[in-house]
Each structure stands twice: as structure tokens, then as C-alpha cells.
Design goal:
The protein is an alpha/beta fold. The protein is about 35% helix and about 15% strand.
Length: about 325
Amino acid sequence: PVWDEKVHGQGPGVRFSMRGGAYINDAFSEKDWTHSPFPGDPIVPRDRYNQKFEFRGTGIWEHYFEPVSDFAPGDKSCIDKPYLRMSHENIVPGLHANAPWAPRGWRYGGPEYLMAHGEVLYADWYVPFRKYAAKTTKKYIRFNEEIQRRAACAFENPEHSLGMHIRHGDKWTNRELIPTSRFLEYAQAFVEQGGKAIYLATDSALVVDQIMRDWPKGVSSHIVQQPGMEALSKDGKAAFDLGLSAHRANAEALTDILALSKCTFLLHGLSALSESAMYLNPDLVNRAVNLEDLVFDEGGISVAHWKKQILPQGGLIMR
């Protein structure tokens, strides 16, 4: 989620004292000892000092998620414990690009041993990242009642459903824009096999218009969307650059993630949002098709394979 000053910056905030001076040490992979540091073990100096901390507003997390623990800032049990800070470099490029265990939505950069360009197909490349992310998600990520309610209202009956995440917006800057016609082939086969609702998650109003205007009515009539979507681009901009409330855009994106995770099948491209849906529901990986595999791996899953091998896994028998 992105910070929204009008929502997350309001409220009394918190003030508390803990021991300062602790920091994160750099770690390196045995495959790259010098060039790509990522967050390692915490370093707690012996001469650490008592420090007062103050954070304004309500913060971001609990607007969308349940607390990860029962810790409350300022609890007396923590006064003598170290307060650990992460530097910007720990996060970017440390976590974002260099950490070998950090999940990635696509090959967007980092040391070559992690990217494995030309050596590993995307389907195989994703395996360790998805495994680690699913384990972490199960342990720490729990949507609050508001987001759960939004997803339930947006997608009331996910049985025998297809999720489609069509990411356009500003995606053209570093990835392939998948035309809606590529999704249509698979969506049409899904309907022909007896599939029910098709949940559409997109950041583009143009995608919605094109589907509802150009797709056969027998397919477009199955489309379900989150009602009242505002974070929809019409000109190649990112959703967070449209001048809308960041809080609103956060809630809409997280609602789509949760709704997609409840789908029986998933069609998607290279996107962190699509990956997040599979972190929430790891079983979805085996019933998902990454349509960008055709671009990057010169292969991918054909419509025939989709009908014969994948749809039956979700209870749709080939007709």
C-alpha cells in the first residue's frame, strides 16, 4: 500500500522509548560475495542508548490488515529491547533486487545468478520465490474485515470461476502489454466448458471498454468486476499517478488480490498483483496460465492444453 497523508497521517500517533543504535548488517550470497548486499543479521551495539520515538497518524498497516502480533508500541516489556531500523539501501536495492529469498513478480533486475536469463523458464524460476512468499503470507498477512467485506461484495460466488488480471496502465514501460484478444481465447474455452463467473481485475478503463464492446456476449456476460472502481487509467499512467486518493487505490488493489485468490482458475501476465493472489492461494498456481510466457519463454500453455489438462483440475470436464 501507498502512503495517503489524509488517511494514514491523521490521528494521535504514538510515542515510546526503546534502545536505539541497532542496525542491519549486510549479507552476501556465496554466488556473489562483493556486489549485491542484502539485509543480514541485526547488529546490536553494547553501548546502545535509550531513545524516544514518535510516529504520527495511524500508519498504513491496520487500515488493510490485521496486526501481525499483539505488540503495542510503548509496552513496558520493550523499553530495554533494541529498536531496529532498516536503511533505504536495505530495502532498495537490498530487499527489492538483491535478496535471494525475496519474492519477485518478474525478472526486473538484480544479480545475474538470480535472474537466470536464458537458463530457467519462468514457471521454474518462480518456484522458490512463490514457496517462500506463500509461507510468509500464511504466517503474517491477514486482511481486516473491511477488505474481506469488499471482496465478498465484489465477488459473491467464486465457485468454478476464472480470474483475469489484465495489467495495462503504465506496464508498457518495462513489460509486454498483453492484448485482450489473448485472454479471450482462454475465457471462451472456459465458458464453453461450463465455467461460471469471470472476475476481471485491471488498472485500465480501456481494457474494460474493449472487453464489453468487442467480446462475444456469451463471454462478456460472465464478467464480474469490483463495483465503483476509480483507479482506472485511460492514458498509460499508473493507478497511483491518477490524482486519486492513494487509500482508495490501495483498497481497490487489495480487494482485487483477495478476489482473484478465491478464483478456481487464473489468467495473468507478469505482475506482483497476480503473484500476490497465488501467495494467498498456492493451489492456484497449478490452475493458472501466465500469458507472457509466450513472449519470454517462446512456449507457454496452449488453449488446447488449457481445455484438456487445466480446466478439468477445477471441475470443468472437457466437452
